[in-house]
Write a structure and sequence with these properties.
There is one protein chain. With 162 residues, this protein is α+β, with helices and mostly antiparallel strands. The chain is built from five helices and five strands; from the N terminus they run ααβββββααα. Strands 1-5-4-3-2 form a five-stranded antiparallel beta sheet.
Length: 162
């Protein structure tokens, strides 16, 4: 087979695969439940915009810039399937992240899978790091979720400001 034909066939096959996956929009909530619900120890990012944020009743004082507590925010990121949301919960003690949970909120099955991969690897990158020093990009091969994660982190920082 001629090398150009092989390359063209590979590109067309890849495009068909992406189109097929984009058309497989599944119920993110059902997929999340089947995969165990919330994915602890992970952060997510993508094209950023924040949908919501709320501190928990466990918020308290701190000797630093941010009040101690557990905070939740939703950030959104771009994907081949369109805008997708990801929920991020951070626990802060003396301005340092002590726990993180990322809950996929995407409506597309493939996006949920990438968000879950992101969630499975985020704790190693953020737990023990001061909130002001968080800068998350690609995690576990999920390169778009980081923006949504960082959008949620920005909202959490604003909510936790002492």
């Amino acid at each position: 087979m001629h090398p150009t034909r092989r390359t063209t066939r590979g590109v067309l096959s890849g495009a068909a695969l992406i189109a097929g996956l984009a058309g497989c929009a599944g119920d993110a909530a059902a997929l999340g439940r089947s995969a165990g619900g919330a994915f602890g120890g992970t952060s997510v990012a993508g094209t950023s915009s924040v949908a919501s944020s709320s501190p928990s009743a466990a918020s308290g004082t701190s000797s630093g810039r941010y009040a101690n507590g557990t905070y939740t925010a939703t950030g959104s990121h771009g994907s081949p399937a369109g805008r997708e949301d990801v929920e991020v919960t951070l626990t802060l003690v003396d301005d340092v992240v002590t726990a993180v949970t990322v809950t996929p909120q995407a409506g597309n099955r493939t996006s949920v899978q990438y968000q879950a991969r992101f969630a499975s690897g985020i704790a190693a990158q953020v737990v023990g790091v001061p909130l002001d020093q968080l800068d998350v990009g690609s995690v576990s091969g999920a390169s778009l979720t980081g923006e949504g994660f960082m959008a949620a982190v920005d909202q959490i920082a604003a909510d936790a400001a002492a």
